[in-house]
Structure formats: structure tokens, C-alpha cells
Amino acid sequence: MAMHVFLAGGTGAVGRLLLPLLLDAGHRVTAASRTPRGIAWLRAQGAEAVRLDMFDRAGVLDAVAAAAPQVIVHQLTALADANLADNARIRREGTRNLVDAAHRAGVERIVAQSISWAYEPGEGPATEETALDTDAPEPRATSVDGVLALERAVAELPEHVILRYGMFHGPGTWYEPDGPVAGRLRRGELAADGSVTSFLHVADAARAALAALDWPSGVVNVVDDEPAAAHDWMPVLARALGVPAPAPSQGRPGWARGADDTRARTAYGWQPREGSWRDCFERLAADRPTVPVTAHAGAAR
After folding, report:
1. What are phi and psi of 93, to 5 degrees?
2. Over pLDDT 70: what percentage of the chain?
3. Is the pLDDT reported for residue 283 higher than 60?
4. Tens digit of pLDDT for each residue in 219-254?
5. With contact defined as beta carbons under 8 Å apart, do 251 and 194 qualify?
6. Which of 156, 160, 157, 118 is nearest to 135 (CA)?
7. Going from the N-terminus, what domains does the chain have, and what CATH number goes with each?
């Protein structure tokens, strides 16, 4: 059924891939951006666009009321500069403003972006029933507290789907050749230890958000099916970038355990189309011109 969707974060890494999917599916979309350039891009794609700062509470309340959507899709992040404090703030304040706007406008359904690496320490990939890491020390506590605030606010609406995404790779992410992870790897700043990550291609994240318009309320891990330790994935990325890989090591923080995607696959019939992190990193290698590299002495996390 076609719906009117209010898309917050329409020009972000996921939002810019999600917008054409929504439009192609027949949905009417009102999307928000902070900048004139973003507004122009949204309109060029076929969306109705509103210029909006998500920290402007009155502006958010007015914008959602004026749009009168049937569902809000929350893909807001502040990760372009890899600033976790800014991202936690948008999860707290931006989400609060969106949810309050939904209450005021009578919007009962929301689909929201969360993360799958905020779970408490343990062995094996975490399921949706695993508790979040509420005892985490700083700096991790900042991120976990932001996730808690987001998920609690979103759950106030009678229909809510919380997508606990894996670590994004693909266009516009930290794992692109010019991204911050690639930069740290080039500088020898990362350790290839036993820390486990569940990844997700941003295009698959967008497809999940589209599908979630019809999913029942609740939390769902949306990840690829290959949780990987850093000493497994980091050499593949290093080879793709043409830089030396850190020496492999063991040990991991207890929370670095990956996430289980059984619910998404079995209950909702969702699965990634872009392949695993391995497929993505190997595509980077195939696209990279051959250049000589030199070894570095070692790495520190």
C-alpha cells in the first residue's frame, strides 16, 4: 500500500539510496535537509523537500504537522566527521523532536535506524533479546546512551520498527578508499585483533528500511551473515586498498561480538543482496589501480 513517508536523513548514506526505492514503490515522500544543495537534490529525485535542522524543535514540530505523513522514516546520523558525540546528540535530541512531532501530528508509525554493536559483553553474536551495554565506560557509554535514548523514544509510538544495522560499508561510508577507517589503516593505527564486527552494505540497509514499512513493531538486527574478527576482515580491506595489513593478534573487548540476523531472515524473509563485507572489499580491490606499497613497523589500536 502506498503511503506518505516523512524521510529524515534523506541525503545521508542510507537516505540517498532509500529515497528512490520509496518513490519507485509508489510512496509519496517528504524529505528533509539542512542545506539548499540538499533540498535541490531531493527535489530533483522527485521528493517534496523541506529545509530543516533536526535540533530546531519548533521547526521539526511544524514541518511534520504540515506534511501530515502516515509514517516517519528516521535515518538521521552525524557521522561524516566520525564524531561520535555529535551522532549521540542527534540520536537523543533529533529523535526526541521527531517523536514529539509524530505525537502532535497523530503519526503512529516510525521506522528508525539504530546499531547492532551496542549490546552487552558476551560470547557469540548477540540476538535482539540480548541486553544493551548499559554499564559501558566512556567513550563507548556516549554511543550506547544515545542508542538507548533513540530506541526508548521511538518505542513510544504504537507502531515502531527499530533497525539495528550492522557496520556500514559501500558508497559514502567509513570503509571507502577515502574514508576514516581506510585512513587509519594506511597510517598503521588499527590492530587486527579478535574484535568481531557484523557489517552491512548501505544499499541493503536501504532495502531493509523500505521493507520495514510493512514489518511488525519491534527490534531487528539487520546485518550480513558473516560476522568477522578484525584479523580476518582487516587484511582483506588492506589488500583492497593496497596498503600493508597490521600483524594479526588475539583478544577483544567483550562487547565486540557481532550480531545474529536470524529474525530478519526467518521471520521477515529479508536477506542482503550486495553480499558480505568480503564481497564488498574484494570489489574495491578489483577497482583499484595497481600501485606499489611499503610495509610499516606495526600497529596500535
Report:
1. -80, -45
2. 93
3. yes
4. 999 999 999 999 999 999 999 998 999 999 999 999
5. yes
6. 118
7. 4-175+200-226+259-275 (3.40.50.720)
Grid coordinates given for 56: 530546531
Q: Which three cell numbers stand for residue 109?
A: 508509525
Structure-block grid coordinates of residue 183: 585512513
pLDDT for 295 equals 32
Query: What gap in Å lies between CA 298 and CA 18, rounded to an integer?
Result: 40
CB 116 within 8 A of CB 259: yes
CA 188 vs CA 54, 123, 196, 204, 261: distances in Å: 37, 28, 19, 30, 32
Between strands 196-197 and 228-229, the pairing is antiparallel
Prediction pTM value: 0.93
- Burial of residue 138, with CB atoms counted within 10 A of its CB: 0-12 exposed, 13-18 middle, 19 or more buried: exposed
| Beta carbons within 8 Å of 130's beta carbon, 6+ residues apart | 119, 120, 122
Q: What are phi and psi of 160, to 5 degrees?
A: -145, 135
